[in-house]
Amino acid sequence: MSEIKGKVVVITGTSSGIGEATAKLLASRGAHVVMGARRVERLETLASLIEAEGGSAIYQQLDVTHIDQMQGIVRLAQRRFGHVDVIVNNAGVMPLSPLEALKIDEWNRMIDVNIRGVLHGIAAALPLMKEQQSGHIVNVASIGAYAVTPTAAVYCATKYAVRAITEGLRQEVGSDIRVTLISPGVTESELAESISDDEARELMQTYRRDALPASAIARAIAYAIEQPADVDVNELVVRPAAQLT
């Protein structure tokens, strides 16, 4: 019997990339997926695809920078299914640039989505999980949470923050709630499309030549979720075999 079957899983950033792949995989294994993203038309298409293949999926438009919207999608999951087993805080942005380019609006966007969005996911799900005395919070970071590279100082800072928040949460919540950090290496996604700086965009095109499919990260998330309740997978770093640093 799959440990995923029947679980209610809220996933942010589900309109593409890792979020989309995770929703498809978990639904195929019997989870009820509750999907959130800003591009609601993509969510509608994805939900229809999952349901056509026999899966269970609902969705709601979501901007993770707004706490009321994050609380709203958790309430949707609870109303529809009675509880929430897992939240995957996946939404993120990556508009890289050298600091001297002073792209302050882009810095603020990364802080808002990558850090505040994760905190909002925790704030929305944790009270319910404490009341249930069960739950699993999965935060998606990056290998940028372990080392800083040129043009990525602010992005890496946000991912270092996610790593610190996740570890602090794990130590605080006790044994009833599991906490997992997933840190992908270079992975196929739309993140690089948000890079407006020419130098950073050129560097990223070279860097992404050996990218993992998003399904590889989805499998890592599924691995953490499918463990028995007394097993907490704290941290997974998943890189392409060709990516040495």
UniProtKB/TrEMBL annotation:
Signal peptide: none annotated. Gene3D superfamilies: NAD(P)-binding Rossmann-like Domain. Residues 7-187 form the Ketoreductase domain. The keyword Oxidoreductase applies. Pfam families: adh_short. Belongs to the short-chain dehydrogenases/reductases (SDR) family. This is SDR family oxidoreductase.
